[in-house]
């Protein structure tokens, strides 16, 4: 029986598919539907608006040059909390949308144990039981949820002045707000790298919704198997044989 959250997400996915397009060509798989992409880019827009307006408040002597983009320092200060709330609302909806594929499994614990040899480049393919998201992506997702909660609570305390909560609470809120903003910023640098140059072919999944089958069997073999019914390792071997037969230089298993 589906829950009210699942029903809400299904309805939203259906409604957004009526408005936008999922472009999937031969040899590709649908990865992110219109609703997911819409939420992701709204999250990204509000995140960077909050980040840059926040920089103007945090380090005005360094970032004074771009506060005019927001209409000046005072306007940036007034808009910053609203950008933060926009970010939290869209990320909240994305959390509901991604709750199922972001749930931690035994395969994720194995992935973490295998991380060292992955980083050392000993293994080109992700472990065969890596599903829609890998453990690293899940960790970052939960880190963003924690960060968003802390930033939201501390932000509201600072915004309202919350004098009734005492000076110490406000002072601690300032420190936590800055620390978590920096943690999120650091995490986003890693995210940006991995979703573009680090794992080529990932970015198009968030633009037009589709990824190549090669990408899927390389980075998410268990998901590849679920949607195609084919074994990822067998698909790689088949592609190798086809490449050898055609006489072209093998670029496999990477995309
Ligand atoms: C312009 C900057 C950004 C780019 C280019 C980008 C790109 C992407 C791409 C391509 C994916 C799909 C990954 C996959 O299918 O496996 C993705 C997923 C995701 N994005 Fe972004 N993103 C950006 C900004 C952000 C921001 C600001 C946040 C939140 C603060 C965010 C949170 C996420 C999360 C939680 C996921 C799912 C898990 C993951 O792949 O790490 N992204 N992003």
Layout of secondary structure:
Layout lengths: L3 H16 L8 E3 L3 H25 L1 H4 L9 H26 L7 H8 L1 H5 L15 H26 L6 H32 L4 H5 L2 E3 H7 L1 H8 L3 H15 L9
Antiparallel strand pairs: 1-2
Helix pairs in contact: 2-4, 4-7, 7-8, 10-11
The structure holds protoporphyrin IX containing FE.
Protoporphyrin IX containing FE binds next to helix 2, helix 7, helix 8 and helix 9.
Biggest β-sheet description: 2 strands, antiparallel
What is the overall silhouette?
A: elongated
- Tell me the helix content: 55-70%
- Class of secondary structure makeup: mainly alpha
Write out the strand line-up for the largest beta sheet, numbering strands in chain order: 1-2
CATH H-level superfamily title = Transmembrane di-heme cytochromes, Chain C
Quickly count the helices. 12
Summarize the structure.
The chain has 255 residues and is mostly helical. 69% of the residues lie in helices and 2% in strands. It has 12 helices and 2 strands; from the N terminus they run αβααααααααβααα.
Describe this protein's structure:
- With 255 residues, the chain is mainly α.
- It has a single domain, classed as Transmembrane di-heme cytochromes, Chain C (Fumarate Reductase Cytochrome B subunit).
- The chain has twelve helices and two strands, in the order αβααααααααβααα.
- A two-stranded antiparallel ribbon has the order 1-2.
- Helix 2 packs antiparallel against helix 4, helix 4 crosses helix 7 and helix 7 runs antiparallel to helix 8.
- The longest helix has 32 residues.
- The chain starts with a helix and ends in a 9-residue tail after the last helix.
- The mean pLDDT is 92.
């Amino acid at each position: 029986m589906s829950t009210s959250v699942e029903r809400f997400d299904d309805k939203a996915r259906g409604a957004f598919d009526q408005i936008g397009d999922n472009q999937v060509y031969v040899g590709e798989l649908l990865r992110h539907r219109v609703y997911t992409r819409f939420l992701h880019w709204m999250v990204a827009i509000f995140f960077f608006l909050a980040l840059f307006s926040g920089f103007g408040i945090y380090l005005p002597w360094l970032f004074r040059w771009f506060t005019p983009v927001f209409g000046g320092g005072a306007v940036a200060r007034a808009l910053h909390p609203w950008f933060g709330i926009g970010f939290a609302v869209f990320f909240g909806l994305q959390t509901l949308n991604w709750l199922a594929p972001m749930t931690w499994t035994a395969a994720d614990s194995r992935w973490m144990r295998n991380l060292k040899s992955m980083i050392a480049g000993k293994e080109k393919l992700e472990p065969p039981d890596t599903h829609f998201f890998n453990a690293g992506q899940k960790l970052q997702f939960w880190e963003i949820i924690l960060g968003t909660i802390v930033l939201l609570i501390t932000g509201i305390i600072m915004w309202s002045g919350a004098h009734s909560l005492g000076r110490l609470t406000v002072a601690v809120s300032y420190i936590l707000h800055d620390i978590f903003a920096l943690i999120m910023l650091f995490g986003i640098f890693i995210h940006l790298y991995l979703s573009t140059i680090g794992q080529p072919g990932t970015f198009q999944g968030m633009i037009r919704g589709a990824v190549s089958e090669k990408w899927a069997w390389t980075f998410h073999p268990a998901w590849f198997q679920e949607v195609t019914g084919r074994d990822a390792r067998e698909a790689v071997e088949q592609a190798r044989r086809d490449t050898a037969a055609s006489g072209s230089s093998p670029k496999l298993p990477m995309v």
